[in-house]
Amino acid sequence: MSEKAARSAATMSDDVLRSFEGHRRELCAYAYRMLGSSFEAEDAVQETFTRAWKSYDSFEGRSSLRSWLYKIATNVCLDMLDGPQRRARPMDLNGPSTPDSTLPAPEPDYVWVEPIPNALAFGADPAEAASTKDTLRLAFVAAVQHLPASQRAILIMREVLRFSAGETADMLNVSPASVNSALQRARATMSKVQEKSTVSDVFDERNEEQRKLVDGFVKAFEAYDMDALTELLKADVALSMPPFSLWVSGPENVAAFMLGTGKACRDSRLVPLAGANGLPAFGHYKPSDDPDVWLPWSITTLELNGDRISGLTFFLDTEKLFPLFGLPMELRPN
Questions:
Q1: How far is 224 from 267, CA to CA, in rounded Å?
Q2: 98 CB neighbour count, 10 Å cutoff
Q3: Rounded distance, CA 218 to CA 222, Å?
Q4: Domain RNA polymerase sigma-70 region, which positions (predicted)?
Q5: Digits of tens for pLDDT over the chain (334 positions)?
Q6: What is the edge-to-edge ordering of all strands in the sheet holding 233-240?
Q7: Residue 329, CA distances (Å) to 4, 37, 139, 195, 287 in order
Q8: Contact 311, 233 (CB under 8 A)
Q9: Phi, psi angles (nearest 5°) of residue 245
């Protein structure tokens, strides 16, 4: 190959890779909905790009590049979902516990729906982010996990990504009639599952009342003022802490848990994040033996409903999650 041809090929390669990169965030969000894990979603996107790169010469342009990448991503996800295991939230596995219950042994990380940073899932367009936040909520992602893998893909393609029945059928190599039939079954399952889910609103950083509610939570939690905290909670608020299956419900039980088993959270610090799953989120640091050092405790997310908080989730796998969210492994005063 001549030097000129080599430069031309390199330029084309760079252009192709850039065209893939333009779809990374939406593909990551899609894979996350399918898999329930931000880490697996990133792996799925990387494998999608690898397969797409290797087969790019066979891409004939009969569909858009976006549709072609989604077809590959779907096959990658279906390969990764080849098994009975589904991710869940603690409240999907058992009923609420009393606040004085002994913590059970932690479950493996593959049991739980994990949080995903907004930056991995949303583009720069606020309108686009607003339209996708609802389907990245923890409750929605957990509900989707109840579906068989192919129904999961069809529901997301048709109702989240708005692909047509024909486009979806082409991606899955089935008939449009099969797509429509599977979609009806998926909708029926989702309707039953979501009846039991905590209701939450889409979080809008520009909404002054929502910001006031979140700021009130931070102030009450860092002061460990349980009276102020419970005033912000809905009557059916749920507190959970993956990887533990235990969870508690109700403001009084949340307060009792915080003052009992959760008392190590006293004097914590909450570092605001750009968001997780479209929800308000924080890097939660707890005190250490050194009064000038706080250590990672959780990625904490809030679910809001009206003028109250309906869900508190403390994701405790800090060794994996703090680097994912770009957080340091210790916090010192400025």
A1: 7
A2: 10
A3: 6
A4: 20-82
A5: 444 434 444 445 778 888 899 999 999 999 999 999 999 999 999 999 999 999 998 886 777 899 999 999 999 999 999 766 689 999 999 999 999 999 999 999 999 999 999 999 986 555 556 667 889 999 999 999 999 999 999 999 999 999 999 999 999 999 999 999 999 999 999 999 887 666 688 898 889 999 999 999 999 999 999 999 999 999 999 999 999 999 999 999 999 999 999 999 999 999 999 999 999 999 999 999 999 999 999 999 999 999 999 999 999 999 999 999 999 999 997 6
A6: 247-249, 233-240, 308-315, 294-305, 281-287, 269-272
A7: 49, 21, 28, 39, 13
A8: no
A9: -80, -15
Which one, of 199, 288, 280, 285, lies nearest residue 236 by Cα?
Answer: 199
> According to CATH, where is 1.20.140.160 located in the chain?
3-194
- Determine if the pTM surpasses 0.85: yes
Tokens of 120: 């991995």
For residues 232 and 309, the answer to whether their CB atoms sit within 8 Å is yes
Question: Which residue spans of the chain are classified as CATH 3.10.450.50?
Answer: 208-324
Element (DSSP H or E) covering residue 327? none
b vs e for 161-179, b when ≥16 Cβ sit within 10 Å of the residue's Cβ? bebebebbbbbbeeeeebb
CATH of region 208-324: 3.10.450.50
Structural fold of domain 3-194:
Butyryl-CoA Dehydrogenase, subunit A; domain 3 (1.20.140)
